[in-house]
Write a structure and sequence with these properties.
Elements: H1 2-13, E1 22-25, E2 31-38, E3 41-47, E4 50-55, E5 65-71, E6 75-77, H2 80-86, E7 99-111, E8 114-123, E9 126-139, E10 143-153, E11 173-184
Antiparallel strand pairs: 1-4, 1-11, 2-3, 2-11, 3-6, 4-5, 5-7, 7-8, 8-9, 9-10, 10-11
């Protein structure tokens, strides 16, 4: 019993031994962009609203985890027709599936300041494993910045249904690029 009390006191006094650093996303300095191919031409867009629960420390990868929630209705493209179409039931179906979620608790160092986050993406109520590869651009006591990307197949998530399910006109592969800037949750 005395050992449990000692462990509890240690955890209370030194919480950093147990948790990775907690970060808050700086929205106006962060972005999630995507690119696809239609008729051999690039189509690009972004999600303007997203939030996250980030616990990350490059020295404590086993204690790190992230959960990013994307507001699918915030999708934006250069062409209003494309933007409006992406919100329909054939594509993202924002009325039925307003959020997408990526969560990961398996991080690997892959090189100098590069990492892989192995997790799961839920989009349109379909959950698939996905790996985000990212580079730690900046990491101080109070600020962090990462840049990365992943590639997914839209058909895995039923994005593009009906006449759009064919991958002849609109390719199956979608590249997602992201830049996240964050500050330590207790930073002033």
């Amino acid at each position: 019993m005395a050992i449990k009390k000692i462990i509890f006191l240690i955890l209370l006094i030194f919480p950093s031994f147990c948790l990775a650093t907690s970060w808050q996303i700086i929205s106006n300095k962060s972005s999630i962009h995507f690119s696809a191919t239609q008729n051999n031409s690039p189509i690009t867009g972004e999600f303007k609203n997203f939030s996250g629960d980030i616990e990350f420390d490059p020295n404590q990868l086993s204690k790190s985890h992230i959960k990013i929630i994307v507001d699918i209705d915030s999708v934006a493209t250069s062409f209003k027709d494309v933007q409006d179409a992406l919100k329909t039931a054939d594509w993202f179906d924002v009325a039925s599936f307003p959020k997408a979620t990526f969560s990961a608790d398996d991080f690997k160092k892959t090189g100098d300041d590069t990492y892989a986050a192995n997790g799961k993406l839920t989009l349109r109520n379909k959950t698939m494993p996905i790996t985000l590869n990212f580079k730690l651009i900046k990491y101080t006591d109070n600020e962090a910045m990462i840049s990365g990307k992943t590639e997914l197949k839209r058909s895995d998530f039923d994005v593009g249904k009906g006449e759009w399910s064919s991958t002849k006109q609109i390719k199956n592969e979608v590249v997602v690029n992201f830049e996240i800037e964050a500050q330590k949750n207790d930073a002033k």
